[in-house]
# Entry
Amino acid sequence: MSFEEIYDAASERFLDQNLRTRLLAARPIFLESSEQYDAKATAYSLHEMSEGNPAAEVIESGELIVLYDQGLLRRRSRARLLYEEIRVSTPYNICPYCNHRNVGQLDHYLAKSKYPIFSLCPSNLIPSCSDCNKLKRDRSYKSFVDSPVHPYFDYFEGIDWLICNLQIMDGEWIGRFEIDSGALIESNVEKLRNHFTDFGLWELYTIQASAELARQSEMVKSFRNTGGVGAVKDFLERQFSSFKAYSNNHWRTALAKGCLANDAYLEG
# Structure
């Protein structure tokens, strides 16, 4: 959606004429700032954006935040329909930060408390689960690698970069995840590793993978007993193909690939 569309829809909800006049005066600054946001994000330099309110001479920072809280979020309005359009835009309603939990709200990639001019910028509004939104908080970022993956501008899906290594701990198989340093340039590897750390994905994926290994253990034993290692491979290859069709860097995809690469797991 356009910058103009979302700003105008949120602004029209206010009856205070003085506020509406100042919102109208701030509109060109919002549009220019939003264009700068996209230009910086496209150049992977969004961390260079200055904090503060460039429209401070005509409208206060708190009023720009109110424009989001009471303009965009107000129910039964054209603005709320735009909010919902963004919220449900992610495939399968899955949070793009963790690629696991369901979207429940919108996150401001650059926090609206520090960058109020972007409180309504559609490129800054990210569908998010509540856990990721809380973990992200209102941090500022000093470099490209320090900032989280931006779902609209940082594209890593075309390359297989998520690895799952199987290990035995206390007699049970667990999955440990890693970023393949040979698949991406160094800065992207560092960015992804920081993203996983900030959002707790190492632990989340290990817990999910280990639980999945426990759930499928009896099935794998059954395939091994009736058809040998070949039957186990066929089962895992079907899983891998199915998960990869959804996302080649989902933890389930990496887990299936890790199982196929582990002879000890295949042979039992």
Residues 1 and 85 are 9 Å apart (CA to CA). The longest strand covers residues 162-169. The mean pLDDT is 95. DSSP finds nine helices and four strands in the chain.
